[in-house]
Amino acid sequence: MQCNSEKDDGDEMDIIPSEQNGTAVDSKPSDIRDVHNAEENQKSTIDPNLYLYDDDLETRPHISTFISSIANYENTIPAATDPDAKPPSARMGTLIGVFLPCIQNIFGVILFIRLTWVVGTAGAVCGFLIVLTCCCVTMLTAISMSAIATNGVVPAGGSYFMISRSLGPEFGGAVGMLFYTGTTLAAAMYIVGAVEIVLTYMAPWLSIFGDFTKDVDAMYNNFRVYGTMLLCVMGLIVFLGVKFVNKFATVALACVIFSIIAVYVGIFDNINGNDKLYMCVLGKRLLKDIPIANCTKEDPMVLDLYCPNHKCDDYFQNNNLTHVKGIKGLASGVFYDNIMPSFLEKGQFISYGRNSVDIENVGGESYNQIMADITTSFTLLIGIFFPSVTGIMAGSNRSGDLADAQKSIPIGTICAILTTSTVYLTSVLFFAGTVDNLLLRDKFGQSIGGKLVVANIAWPNQWVILVGSFLSTLGAGLQSLTGAPRLLQAIAKDEIIPFLAPFAKSSSRGEPVRALFLTILICQCGILLGNVDLLAPLLSMFFLMCYGFVNLACAVQTLLRTPNWRPRFKFYHWSLSLIGLTLCISVMIMTSWYFALIAMGMAVIIYKYIEYRGAEKEWGDGIRGMALTAARYSLQRLEEGPPHTKNWRPQILVLSKLNDNLIPKYRKIFSFATQLKAGKGLTICVSVIKGDHTKIANKAVDAKITLRKYMTDEKVKGFCDVLVAQEIGEGLSSVIQTIGLGGMKPNTVIIGWPYSWRQEGRNSWKTFIQTVRTVTACHMALIVPKGINFYPESNHKIGGNIDIWWIVHDGGLLMLLPFLLKQHRTWRNCKLRIFTVAQIEDNSIQMKKDLKTFLYHLRIEADVEVVEMNNSDISAYTYERTLMMEQRNQMLRALGLNKKENFKVVQTIVDHHYDAIKTASKVRFADPTIEETENHQDSHNEEKRNSIDSDGAESIEAPEITSNKDESTEKADGNLKTNVKPDEFNVRRMHTAIKLNEVIVEKSQDAQLVIMNLPGPPKEVRAERESNYMEFLEVLTEGLEKVLMVRGGGREVITIYS
C-alpha cells in the first residue's frame, strides 16, 4: 500500500547508503555473510521448501503440527463414569449414545401413573392438544439444540453449556442453576412416584399412617416417610460409585420398552373389553371400597354406609347401583364418551356428565364416593404432564462419548422425540377408546380395588407394568441423582458463582461428594411436598426456562449471523426458535403463574449476582456479539478485553491510496471489502496525504468526500477519514495504532499491493513494508489483494474454485476468509479447495485425514489435498534468478547518482534485469492505473527483451545508455562479474519461492482466487533485504491472476468449539 505523496526533487530513493569523500561505500561488509551462515545453522531443521517462512515457523506452527494437535484434542466435562473403569475403546453411535438414553429419560413415571387420568379429565381432544403442545415445545427446542450442538464441539453439560457459551456467563449461570434445580426436583418426583407405585398398587399394607384410601393426608405422609428412606438408599448407591447406576440404567431402559409394548399388546388383546374388571356406580357417581358382589342397594354393607340410623342419603334413594365394565375395548365405541373434557373443582364428585346434581356435594357427606383431590384445568394438566417429555438433553450430555456428536445428536434426539411423541399421542387415543370415562378419571384406581389402570390394560399381567414402572422410575431417579451433582460441580468449576466454589472439589475417587450432599438436601425438600401433582408443575417451570433459553440462544446467534455460527444441522430457522421460546413462556404462565414467577425470580437473582460478583468469563457469547453494535454502555463492556474467538469477525481498516487528483486509485478494493463484510463487522476506509494540514485542509475535506462517494457506490457500510501527515509511513502508522474507539477498533487491515515498486524505487516498497511491520506489531491481521483489477464486481456472480494454500497456521484466518466471501452472492457458487504442504517427516495420509477431521469440526466444506514437495537440489535457475536480483541491488548501490539520473538508470536496470527472465506468467502484474502510453512503451520494451539471450548471468549485457554515466554503469557491471556466487541466504529463500510457485501454478492456475500465507518481512531494516523480500513475493505469486496474501494477527479467529 502506498499513499499519495507530492513528488518533488527533495525526495530521495534512499538506496545510496553512505558516501565518503565522493566514493561510494558498500553497506554490506564481509562479516554479513558470516551472520547469514550462523542463521542458516540455527534454522537447519526447517524444510528447504519452506525456508521463505522460517521467521514465521519460529513462532507459528506448521500446518501438520497444528492439525495433529487439534485432531488429538478433547475437552469434555467429566461425565457420570466409573473412575476405576477403563476408558472405552470405541465411542458410541447414534442409537446407543443418543436415541436410547433420550427414550429412557423421556418415558417416565407420569406415563404410567398419570396419563390415563389426564386423558379422562381433559378428554380425547384436549388431552391430545396437551400432549401435542408439550411435544411441540420439545421438538422446537430439539431443533434449536441441534443447531447449537452441531456448531462445534460441545462438551458434556447439556443446556448449561449451550446457553452459557451462547448467551454469556450471566444467563448461563442462571439457567444452569435452574437446570440443576429442575434435575434435582425431577429426582424427588421419581422417588415419590416410585413410592406411590409400591404403596398404592403393590403393597398397600406397608402404610404406617392407617388406611390412606380414606385419608389423603395419611397417603402423603406415607410418601414423605418412605420417600426419605428411598432417597437415603439411592444417595448411598450414588455415593459408593456410578458403576451400579450405569448398569442399572440398561435394566431400567429394558423395563420401560417392555412395559410400553405390553400396554400396546394389551390394548389390542382387550379390543372387545375385559370382563374381569367392573366398577360400582351409584347413579352417575363412581364408588370405591365396594366389592362387585356387594354392589346392590339391598346389601347390608351398602345400607349401613348410606343409611345410618335408618336415614338414607337422598342421592342414594333416588339412584340405583350398577355394575360398569371398566375396560370396554376399542370396539365398544367408548371413545365418543371420552371426547369432551371433565374438569372439576376440588371436592366435586367424579361422575358422568356435567350435571350439578351429580357432581356437587350438597349434603356435605362423601360416604365412599370418589372426589377430585385437586382443581383441574387445561393449563394445570399441561404442567403435570410436561415432565413426561423432558429428558431431551440426554444425548447432548454425552457428546464427549459420541463417535460423531454433530451427526448423532440431531438425528438421535429428534428421532427419540418423534418416537416418544408418537407413543404419547397414540396412547391418548387408545386410552380414550378403551377405558370407561369414570375409570380414566380415577387417579389412584380406588374404584377397582386400588389397582393401576394402565397395569390392568397391559398383557399378560398387571405385574409386568407394576414391576417395570417401578424399576424404570428408580432408574430415572438414580440418573438424576447422578447427573445433578456433576452439573453443579461443572458450574462451580467455571467460577462464575463465587459461593459455589466449595462444590467444585471432588473426592479422591473423582466423585462430587459435596455436590451430592447438597443435591440430596434439595431433593429431600421436594420429597416433603409428598405429591407428584405439586412436584410436576414446579419442575416443569425449571425445564421450561432452560428450553426457552436454548431457543433464545439459537435465535440470537442466527439473527446476529456471527462468522462462527455455522451449524452442521441445517434444518433450523430463527422463527422456529422464537416460536419455541414463546411456547415455553406461554406454557409457564398458563400452567402456574406463581411457580413461573418463582423460577423467573430465581433466574433474575442469580443473573444479577453473577453480573456483580462473577461474570469474569468470556466465552464468545451472543450477548457480547450484540454489544458490538450498541452505544456507550456496550463500548465500555467491550473495553474489558478483546472479543472471544467465536465473536471474532473482521473489523476492516482499508488503507486506500489516492492519485494526484485525490481519487482512490484502486476502486475494486472497496468491492472486495463489501464482499468480505458478510461477517457483519466494522469497516473504516482511510487515506493519507503528505503535506501540512494547516495548508491543505481543504484538500483533505475534498478527498474525504470522494472517498465517501466511492464507499457509497460500492455499498461499503462504514466510516471514512483522511489524514494529513508530513510522512506517509508515519501517517499510516498513526492510523493503524489509533483508529477506532474502545471495542470498535479494527483488527484487520486491507492494503493494496505496490505494483510499481521496481519503477518507483524504495520510496514505494519502504512504505509497504513499514505498514506490514506496524500491522504485525499491533497484532492485527493483514490482507494484501494482488491483481485487484481482476477481482469480480459485487454485482457479478462467479463460479469455480477458491484455493487456500495453508502453509503456516497463524490463527485460522485463511479458513475464515473464504467462508466469509462465500456468504456474498458474488462468491457463493465457488467451491473451496485447501492445499497444504507436507514436510519430509510428515505422514501425508494421516495429515490429510486430520485436516478433513479439522474441517469437519469447523463445519466448512472443502476438498483437501496434501502436496508433497520433493527435497530437490537447488536448481541453476534459482541461482541465476538470485544472482540477477543481487546484481540489481549492487548496481544500485554502486551508482552514486542524483535522483533524476538514478531513476533513469534504475529503469534501465529493471528492463535489463527482466530481459533475461522468461516466465510463464498468466498475468503480468502492473499498476492498474498505468496510462496507455506507458503500456505501449512496455510492449516496445518487451519486444526488445525477447531478443536478448538469458542463458546465464554472465551473458547479461546492459543496453546502451546514451548519457554521461555510461562509464559508471560499465564499471558496476565489471565489478559484479568478479563475484558471481549469490548469497546462500537469498538462494534458499528464492528456492522456496520458486518451488512453491511451481506447485501453486500447477494446481491453482485456473482458480478464481488463490489465498496464501504472506511471509513475514525481514527483521533487518536494510534496503537490500527489503528489496529482496519484495522480489521473493513477486516470484511466489508469478503466473496467478488473483492472489490474496494473508498474515494473521497472532490470535485464533476460528474455533471448532461451540
TrEMBL record:
<keyword id="KW-0633">Potassium transport</keyword>
<keyword id="KW-0597">Phosphoprotein</keyword>
<feature type="transmembrane region" description="Helical">
    <location>
        <begin position="248"/>
        <end position="268"/>
    </location>
</feature>
<keyword id="KW-0406">Ion transport</keyword>
<dbReference type="GO" id="GO:0015379">
    <property type="term" value="F:potassium:chloride symporter activity"/>
</dbReference>
<feature type="domain" description="Amino acid permease/ SLC12A">
    <location>
        <begin position="97"/>
        <end position="267"/>
    </location>
</feature>
<feature type="domain" description="Amino acid permease/ SLC12A">
    <location>
        <begin position="373"/>
        <end position="653"/>
    </location>
</feature>
<feature type="transmembrane region" description="Helical">
    <location>
        <begin position="92"/>
        <end position="113"/>
    </location>
</feature>
<dbReference type="GO" id="GO:0007268">
    <property type="term" value="P:chemical synaptic transmission"/>
</dbReference>
<dbReference type="GO" id="GO:0045202">
    <property type="term" value="C:synapse"/>
</dbReference>
<feature type="compositionally biased region" description="Basic and acidic residues">
    <location>
        <begin position="963"/>
        <end position="980"/>
    </location>
</feature>
<dbReference type="InterPro" id="IPR000076">
    <property type="entry name" value="KCL_cotranspt"/>
</dbReference>
<dbReference type="Pfam" id="PF00324">
    <property type="entry name" value="AA_permease"/>
</dbReference>
<keyword id="KW-0868">Chloride</keyword>
<dbReference type="InterPro" id="IPR018491">
    <property type="entry name" value="SLC12_C"/>
</dbReference>
<feature type="transmembrane region" description="Helical">
    <location>
        <begin position="174"/>
        <end position="202"/>
    </location>
</feature>
<protein>
    <submittedName>
        <fullName>Kcc</fullName>
    </submittedName>
</protein>
<keyword id="KW-1003">Cell membrane</keyword>
<feature type="compositionally biased region" description="Basic and acidic residues">
    <location>
        <begin position="933"/>
        <end position="948"/>
    </location>
</feature>
<dbReference type="GO" id="GO:0055075">
    <property type="term" value="P:potassium ion homeostasis"/>
</dbReference>
<feature type="domain" description="SLC12A transporter C-terminal">
    <location>
        <begin position="966"/>
        <end position="1058"/>
    </location>
</feature>
<dbReference type="InterPro" id="IPR004841">
    <property type="entry name" value="AA-permease/SLC12A_dom"/>
</dbReference>
<feature type="transmembrane region" description="Helical">
    <location>
        <begin position="378"/>
        <end position="396"/>
    </location>
</feature>
<feature type="domain" description="SLC12A transporter C-terminal">
    <location>
        <begin position="671"/>
        <end position="784"/>
    </location>
</feature>
<feature type="transmembrane region" description="Helical">
    <location>
        <begin position="125"/>
        <end position="154"/>
    </location>
</feature>
<feature type="region of interest" description="Disordered">
    <location>
        <begin position="1"/>
        <end position="39"/>
    </location>
</feature>
<keyword id="KW-0325">Glycoprotein</keyword>
<feature type="region of interest" description="Disordered">
    <location>
        <begin position="931"/>
        <end position="980"/>
    </location>
</feature>
<keyword id="KW-0813">Transport</keyword>
<dbReference type="GO" id="GO:1990573">
    <property type="term" value="P:potassium ion import across plasma membrane"/>
</dbReference>
<feature type="transmembrane region" description="Helical">
    <location>
        <begin position="223"/>
        <end position="242"/>
    </location>
</feature>
<keyword id="KW-0769">Symport</keyword>
<keyword id="KW-0630">Potassium</keyword>
<keyword id="KW-0472">Membrane</keyword>
<comment type="similarity">
    <text>Belongs to the SLC12A transporter family. K/Cl co-transporter subfamily.</text>
</comment>
<feature type="transmembrane region" description="Helical">
    <location>
        <begin position="408"/>
        <end position="433"/>
    </location>
</feature>
<dbReference type="GO" id="GO:0006884">
    <property type="term" value="P:cell volume homeostasis"/>
</dbReference>
<feature type="compositionally biased region" description="Basic and acidic residues">
    <location>
        <begin position="28"/>
        <end position="39"/>
    </location>
</feature>
<feature type="transmembrane region" description="Helical">
    <location>
        <begin position="538"/>
        <end position="559"/>
    </location>
</feature>
<feature type="domain" description="SLC12A transporter C-terminal">
    <location>
        <begin position="799"/>
        <end position="878"/>
    </location>
</feature>
<keyword id="KW-1133">Transmembrane helix</keyword>
<dbReference type="GO" id="GO:0055064">
    <property type="term" value="P:chloride ion homeostasis"/>
</dbReference>
